[in-house]
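Here is one chain, start to finish.
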Amino acid sequence: MNRSRNLQRVVLLGLAFSFVAVLLAQGPSDKKLLVNGENTGGTVLQAEGRFYVDIETLARITSGTVSVEPTQILLTIPTSNSEASSPETEGVLSKDFVSAAIVALADMKEWKGALRTMITYGLAVDDSWAQTYREQAETSLTQAAVEASTNADRSALQLLSNEFAHLAKWESDVLADRKALNSAKTLDPNALQDDPELTKISNCGRFLNKMLVGRTFADNPSCD
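Its structure:
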């Protein structure tokens, strides 16, 4: 059995050397191998209209490994998920998440606008009227959570959830203040403009909108 394998190896090596000799006889191997404009240090042999590259050179270029067996040569080239691991795409938000998140952010903006208008002009003294706006924003936020599929998506979702939580707290606080006034009089237009919590919510909303349009995750103190 061992003698047979040794004979087989000798035959394979003989064929390999014969093949190389034929290639060398075809002409000089003076063609350099360049990949993406970079000189790899390897050369290319041409024979009968075909080009051949040394397998070890190919393995080196691709960070692969070569394993020589009696009847075959194994070239293993590592694979990776370039979109997930590449520094250029690591913070990129997925299209489906961005679409859902933009809807959620728009619903929050509508909720905030309706709340601000009704409170300023004394159109409500309890939070029953705001339920529809709040529930719609919550439904949209849930859909955005379903679409979050990457680490960048989940990080952005956290900021979006913070915006929702801040908005819900602000609604509760200002409605409590309206009840305490027990009056249908309009508020000073500057009262809400100078509200630090509302300012923070508005700043976060503008930041989130810009981030989602750019499809690249970033953080901002206003959304903490």
